[in-house]
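[recover] target loaded
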């Protein structure tokens, strides 16, 4: 960050907060030996928490009048099940796809919700604990603001779609579809059909991950900018105005961001259902 004993500039503050805790220094633009340890830790922890929450809801479910927690989870389950029935028409597939979609929704919502924590809270705690543990002074806590996480999620969805393409249509039927759709089963159209199919798979996967990443990354940056307003306050008219603006802007953006994090989780879940549903359809 800034030189020892001096406050960081706005640019240094943002650059520092956008650095990941990594296992080693990155030496190239694309280096698959470098892992963002903070994203892995928080994504795994929140995945475990999400599964535990759903497990507790299922374990405590009763046939009588449900409590508020059970009623809320049942509402989520009904919402996801309704969407799954409208998109994936194979009842056998829905036994796996519907719970998967529910887990995806809850997990991504939990990861997105980390953006609502004060920007400097967990990094400040890590600033104290990290050096004692021999770790670098970096910590990002919103896994979905990390492109490697969102693209990993979208690649997982792609693998599930490939699995259902082969399961439903058979390997031979799926390969035939790759060369015969969308323009017809003519030998001279095979190269064009195959190219279009590959473009479709790549485009869906990239847009699936990039959409979530872009929205959460932008939200994270806005919270950092709002935090800078609070950090710049002084005992002056301008400084007090900045402090008040920090409180008002932070509160308004946090309330609005609740809608964003929920919507992004819902959109990712719906696209997962749509892509899996398309894997069941024959061209």
């Amino acid at each position: 960050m800034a030189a020892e004993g001096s406050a960081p500039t706005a640019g240094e503050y943002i650059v520092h907060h956008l650095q990941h805790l990594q296992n080693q220094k990155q030496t190239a633009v694309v280096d698959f030996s470098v892992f963002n340890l903070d994203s892995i830790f928080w994504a795994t922890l929140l995945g475990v928490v999400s599964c535990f929450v759903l497990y507790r809801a299922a374990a405590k479910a009763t046939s009588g009048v449900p409590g508020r927690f059970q009623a809320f989870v049942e509402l989520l389950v009904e919402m996801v099940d309704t969407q799954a029935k409208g998109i994936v028409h194979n009842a056998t597939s829905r036994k796996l796809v519907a719970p998967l979609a529910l887990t995806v929704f809850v997990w991504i919502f939990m990861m997105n919700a980390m953006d609502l924590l004060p920007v400097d809270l967990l990094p400040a705690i890590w600033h104290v604990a990290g050096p004692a543990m021999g770790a670098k002074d970096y910590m990002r806590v919103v896994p979905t603001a990390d492109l490697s996480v969102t693209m990993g999620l979208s690649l997982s969805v792609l693998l599930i779609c490939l699995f259902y393409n082969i399961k439903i249509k058979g390997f031979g039927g799926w390969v035939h579809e790759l060369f015969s759709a969308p323009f017809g089963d003519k030998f001279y159209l095979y190269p064009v059909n195959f190219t279009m199919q590959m473009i479709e798979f790549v485009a869906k996967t990239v847009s699936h991950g990039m959409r979530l990443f872009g929205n959460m990354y932008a939200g994270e940056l806005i919270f950092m900018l709002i935090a800078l307003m609070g950090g710049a306050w002084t005992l002056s008219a301008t400084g007090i105005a900045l402090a008040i603006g920090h409180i008002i802007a932070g509160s308004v953006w946090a309330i609005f961001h609740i809608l964003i994090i929920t919507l992004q989780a819902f959109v990712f879940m719906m696209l997962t259902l749509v892509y899996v549903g398309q894997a069941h359809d024959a061209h």
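[recover] notes: Residues 136 and 283 are 52 Å apart (CA to CA).
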